[in-house]
Amino acid sequence: MNRLIALTAAPLFAVAVFSMSAHADPIADRQALMKDQGKTVGSITPIIKGEKPFDAQLVMTALKHLNEDAQKIDIATLFPKGSETGGKTTASPKIWEDSAGFEAAMSKYKADAAKAAVAEPKDLDSFKVVFNQVTENCGTCHKAFRIKKD
């Protein structure tokens, strides 16, 4: 009986999930993802600055989380045409004007985040190399494809 209920409910659940995702707010979704990445970077920045001791477990957890978030960045879903003007966003129109450049920047970020997630830095110096390679992508993309906040 339980199996019959599960089999009957599964298609209804799939329709409900599809309906929710079809009406998702790409601006809110991308902002939430970027905020999560910022929070993760912020959790390990004190180590880079020498304000906290190197903690390999914390560093690896953060690097893996950054990679998970990076791999969730789907340009077609999070940056669809028309989402540059709707709502409160700091996404620059250049994202859509130079879509090839934006895609290249995102691809590089994803690749660097994936490398960082398996780098397993053993000390502060090796962590700095990995961290800087990932966060340079953030700075490059924000300068080119984000409207500066006031």
Q: Main β-sheet: number of strands, strand sense, barrel status?
A: none
Count of beta strands: 0
Report strand %: under 5%
Mean pLDDT: 87
Question: N- to C-terminal separation?
Answer: 60 Å
Q: From N to C, what is the helix and strand string? A: HHHHHHH
Helix percentage: over 70%
| Structural class based on helices, strands and sheet pairing | mainly alpha
Number of helices: 7
> Low-confidence parts lasting 5 or more residues at pLDDT below 50?
2-21
Describe what this molecule looks like in 3D.
- The model is unreliable at 2-21 (pLDDT under 50).
- This protein has seven helices and no strands.
- Helices cover 74% and strands 0% of the residues.
- α6 (99-119) packs antiparallel against α7.
- It has helices at 2-22, 26-48, 56-71, 75-78, 94-97, 99-119, 124-145.
- By secondary structure, the chain is mostly helical.
Gist?
The chain is mainly alpha-helical. The protein is 74% helix and 0% strand.
Topology:
Blueprint: H1 2-22, H2 26-48, H3 56-71, H4 75-78, H5 94-97, H6 99-119, H7 124-145
Helix pairs in contact: 2-3, 3-6, 6-7
Summary keywords:
mainly alpha, single chain, 7 helices, elongated
